[in-house]
Amino acid sequence: MRQEPTENGRGLKLHPDELVRLAPRLKPYLHRPSPTWPELVDAADWLRHDLDVSKPLWGEACLAMGREQAAIALAVVSTKDTAHFRTTPGGYFHGMVAKAKAGELNLDRTLWAIRRAAQPRSLDLMLPSVSPAARRGPARSREDWGSNCT
Question: Is 74 within 8 Å of 44 (Cβ atoms)?
């Protein structure tokens, strides 16, 4: 069942500014720093050329998942390193469109992964480093384990 587009990425909790922050390859195609969803869709239509996504495939994506989610999916593709793709970014996007048609595309999880990857690692730096031996605890003899060990 197809939902109507909304101003928040068709049900995804995502603001246009956040998408631009997560997918900076959209920036050159935007006319202002705080875009609207229609402006992001237009930017994604220009970005598709860089990713070898054909106009027919872009149209198919817009019909299958709606214009905003198609723009989000294309932005996701733009965040991937070229080594990530088996063939091309366009081929990867084609797979996303096929999943959307089958009702199997989950952009929420993908966006959360991109958000986590974009977060600074400062929390990890604040935690003390613990060696594997310290994680196991003190060494124990066989007698310490009780009668269950043979």
Answer: yes
Give the pLDDT confidence of 71-123 residue by residue, as tens digits. Answer: 999 999 999 988 888 888 999 999 999 999 999 999 998 899 899 988 876 55
Total residues found in the chain within this entry: 150
Distance CA 136, CA 116 (A): 28
- Give me the pLDDT at residue 118, please: 84
CB-CB contact of 14 with 8 (8 Å): yes
Which residues in 124-150 are b (16+ Cβ under 10 Å) and which e?
Answer: eeeeeeeeeeeeeeeeeeeeeeeeeee
